């Protein structure tokens, strides 16, 4: 690789596969794919699979971070954790149309691929997959086999966004089949999504370790999210109240208040008073997402609410083990 004047240069390769060697074939002018410094960029899944297969034959461990792009510090924390877990880090950027409802913001979802590439290059990511919709869904969205995880997908965000988690489960299954990682990393901000993916990997006997990474936050407590960019200045100033309401509920439970129904109503009222339009505010068993019972060992308190047209989600957890619960107040 050329290294002129101490600066790593951008070299373009094509996603053309030699049918016998399965090696990338260089071609000029370039069409798709490339190498940014030491980060290889793939538009075609076959080329990525060939590269990963070679790494696996060499005994290397593969970590995978699937994203929809518009990367922020939360995504980069996933990448850094992935680097501690494996030899090779693969990141995908794919805005998945299957998880967007007919009235949702697919066309407006921020796409910042050039900036995302620079961030991942700066973090030392080895492989970046940037497939087209046609590459992931060659038969069209309607004709594709779909994966649905029962029960967990039908509550909370699933009740408000029918079909959303089927889209998530389907694309994650496809990406797991393409990348075949040893470990995959997801943010705990999307707590329900993480629970669904964990159950799916177990139910479908996927040999993938699924790790959750703690939610990244701004200094005022707002969970980092690509959708925060939709907030205007006034809404952004109000947004941290979502996390504050969750924290207040957690502290009340830690202090012995166990009427979860009352706490849920109080949380919804607090959000409405702060200027939100609450979707849900719910206390659940952190392992099953079912209603908490006397056997529940760990709680998760989840909320979703609108500020203007922007839907925000967040959660906090609490261990009910007396030896651990006070420590949990400092987390999340």
What does this structure look like?
With 332 residues, the chain is α/β, with parallel strands linked by helices. It folds into 2 domains: 211 residues, 3-Layer(aba) Sandwich (Rossmann fold); 103 residues, Pantoate--beta-alanine Ligase, Chain: A,domain 2 (2-Layer Sandwich), CATH 3.30.1300.10. It contains 11 helices and 13 strands. Strands 3-4-5-8-7-6-9-10 form an 8-stranded mixed beta sheet, with helices on both faces. Strands 11-12-13 form a 3-stranded antiparallel beta sheet. A two-stranded antiparallel sheet has the order 1-2. α6 crosses α7. The N terminus and C terminus are likely disordered.
Largest sheet, strands/sense/barrel = 8 strands, mixed
Radius of gyration of CA atoms, rounded to a whole number: 21 Å
CATH superfamily of the largest domain: HUPs
- Our count of domains comes out at 2
Helix content: 25-40%
SSE inventory with pairings:
Blueprint: E1 3-4, E2 7-8, E3 10-11, E4 34-36, E5 39-42, H1 45-57, E6 62-67, H2 73-85, E7 88-93, H3 113-123, E8 127-129, H4 133-136, H5 157-160, H6 164-179, E9 183-187, H7 191-203, E10 209-213, H8 233-238, H9 241-254, H10 260-274, E11 277-285, E12 298-307, E13 310-319, H11 325-328
Parallel strand pairs: 5-8, 6-7, 6-9, 7-8, 9-10
Antiparallel strand pairs: 1-2, 3-4, 4-5, 11-12, 12-13
Helix pairs in contact: 6-7, 9-10
């Amino acid at each position: 690789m050329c290294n002129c004047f101490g600066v790593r240069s951008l070299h373009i390769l094509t996603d053309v596969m030699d049918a016998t060697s399965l090696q990338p074939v260089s071609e000029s002018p370039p069409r798709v794919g490339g190498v940014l410094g030491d980060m290889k960029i793939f538009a075609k899944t076959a080329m990525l699979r060939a590269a990963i297969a070679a790494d696996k034959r060499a005994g290397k461990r593969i970590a995978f971070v699937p994203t929809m792009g518009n990367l922020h510090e939360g995504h980069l924390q996933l990448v850094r954790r992935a680097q501690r877990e494996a030899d090779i880090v693969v990141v995908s950027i794919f805005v998945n149309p299957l998880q967007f409802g007919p009235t949702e913001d697919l066309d407006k979802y921020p796409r910042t691929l050039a900036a995302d590439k620079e961030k991942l290059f700066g973090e030392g990511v080895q492989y970046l997959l940037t497939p087209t919709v046609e590459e992931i869904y060659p038969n069209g969205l309607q004709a594709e086999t779909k994966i649905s995880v029962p029960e967990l997908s039908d509550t909370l965000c699933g009740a408000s966004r029918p079909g959303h988690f089927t889209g998530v489960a389907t694309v994650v299954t496809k990406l797991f089949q393409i990348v075949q990682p040893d470990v995959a990393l997801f943010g705990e901000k999307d707590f329900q999504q993480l629970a669904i993916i964990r159950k799916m990997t177990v139910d479908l006997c996927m040999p993938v370790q699924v790790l959750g990474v703690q939610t990244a936050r701004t200094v005022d407590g707002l969970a980092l999210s690509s959708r925060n960019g939709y907030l205007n200045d006034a809404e952004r100033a109000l947004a941290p109240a979502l996390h504050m309401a969750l924290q207040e509920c957690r502290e009340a439970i830690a202090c012995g208040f166990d009427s979860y129904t009352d706490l849920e109503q109080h949380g919804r009222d607090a959000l409405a008073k702060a200027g939100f339009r609450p979707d849900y505010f719910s206390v659940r068993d952190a392992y099953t997402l079912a209603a908490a019972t006397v056997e529940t060992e760990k709680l998760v308190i989840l909320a979703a609410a609108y500020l203007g047209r922007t839907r925000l989600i967040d959660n906090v957890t609490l261990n009910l083990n007396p030896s651990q619960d006070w420590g949990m107040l400092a987390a999340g």
